[in-house]
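Priority: low. Protein: Peroxidase. Input follows.
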Amino acid sequence: MASSQKHFNAFSLVLLLLCLALPLNLARRVGFYAKSCPNAENIIRQIVQQRFKADRSVPAALLRMHFHDCFVRGCDASILIDSTNNNQAEKDASANGSVREYALIDQIKTALERACPQKVSCADIIALATRDAVSLAGGPKYNVSTGKRDGLISRASEVNLPGPGFTVSQAQQSFSARGLSLNHMVILLGGGHTIGVAHCNFFQNRLTNFQGTGAPDRTMDKALVKKLSGLCGSNTNANPTTFLDQNTSFVFDNEYYNQIRKNKGILKIDQELALDPLSARTVSKFASNNNNFRQSFVKAIIKMGNIQQGNAGEIRKNCRRTN
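Result:
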């Protein structure tokens, strides 16, 4: 009997060690919180719906937050951490100046902490809130694998995102470094920009003296140049915004691709997607088939949401700081 007990204990120890050795991402699954916080996804959905009723631009904001978070240290909510006297965090990097809706994440986290303290990660909140917001904007519904942990590190110096003036090749290198293909890049830019906006300072150089030519970017539609010139004016301090999809601006659809094929891309990278042989065929494919775009977007955003993060992590009590 004693011998059997020893063998059992040894087997249990080996099994435990094997489980501890498994990467945390293997534990992720759809419905991860079914037992630990069964109402979690409903709570998130209801709060996002309330916010959407007040501001239809919320889906674009959450997509941007999700993208900017995943592209630095993986999808670990490191973008939510506030800076301290000893550390400038990701959210204060210049590239993240346009990221917003931190208060919405705070509101969701507060509600979840009341319902089930320290069970739902901030990283999962971002992913689930983004999913629900995309659906509210008319986009596809999809499942999110949950069970991610929150990161312990957030440094502004690590923020290195593809910029609005990138060429397709430059942007492709950035996406490839995160395990995403050229096809994923075209899909994710389309998904974010079909309901997104841009401040004038990100494209104003295309309206007047583009690359030192003394003239607007010749690849931009002349009527659009005139319209945007009137919007942006000469007062750079005002820095207003414009929709990246000038047609169905609040609707998640494939119209963005039709716009850039008509030389109505606002950002340089948008227009480059339609002009560069590397991506032009994919743009044409999505421009002609909205269902194809929707289905492809689901696969791409799930892929992005699984960008590898380190195994270390925690469930933050407050999304703005580590425990």
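The CA atoms of residues 284 and 292 lie 11 Å apart. Confidence is low (pLDDT under 50) at residues 10-26.
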